[in-house]
Specification:
Elements: H1 5-18, H2 30-57, E1 63-66, E2 76-81, E3 84-85, H3 90-98, H4 102-112, H5 116-140, H6 145-158, H7 160-168
């Protein structure tokens, strides 16, 4: 398994760096924020969800995971369609990770052991924070340099990529990225 998220981190770093001559408050840094968010989404899909879908639904053309319908508008997230894995967005990933689906719980315990708790509780919290950054710049506020830097710092301080690599045993397709 070779995660592709480092490439997205580099693209985000490029966007942030290539705009360095512009004023700090200009709303032109959304590209960096979106790429950083997409990097996390890609890492979770590739390192956590894809192995679950392959192991649990490998022979099926379609697959869904049930969600507690009382708390959410959706009651399922599609994981596979026409034999191909789906790549849920950050919001859907967050719901899947928190799901009490028996197959998901069994997979987490067998694949991640004592670290399954981090996958099912801490990782959704990180996804929520990143989702708030991304949705803010996409829907309600602008993507400024300060927000791009804050998201980069949050991702670095959370250690989410290193933790995912450690827990899943996956290694990225390119060297580890230190965001500056």
């Amino acid at each position: 398994l070779y995660p592709h998220y480092p490439r997205l981190l580099w693209i985000g770093k490029f966007f942030r760096g290539s705009l360095s001559s512009h004023k700090e408050e200009l709303p032109i840094f959304a590209g960096a924020i979106i790429e950083y968010s997409k990097a996390l989404e890609t890492a979770v899909n590739e390192m956590v969800l894809a192995p679950f879908v392959d192991a649990t639904f490998g022979q099926f053309a379609e697959a869904f995971i049930k969600l507690p319908s009382a708390q959410h508008k959706r009651n399922v997230v599609q994981l596979k369609f026409q034999g191909r894995p789906e790549r849920p967005s950050l919001g859907a990933l967050r719901l899947v990770l928190q799901s009490d689906d028996s197959e998901w719980c069994k997979f987490c315990m067998s694949s991640f052991g004592p670290r399954a708790g981090w996958i099912r509780t801490e990782l959704p919290n990180i996804l929520k924070c990143v989702l708030d950054f991304r949705n803010g710049c996409a829907h309600s506020t602008s993507g400024t340099r300060a927000k791009a830097v804050a998201l980069r710092k949050y991702l670095n301080s959370s250690g989410v990529f290193a933790k995912l690599e450690e827990i899943t045993g996956a290694t990225p397709e390119s060297p580890p990225v230190t965001l500056r």
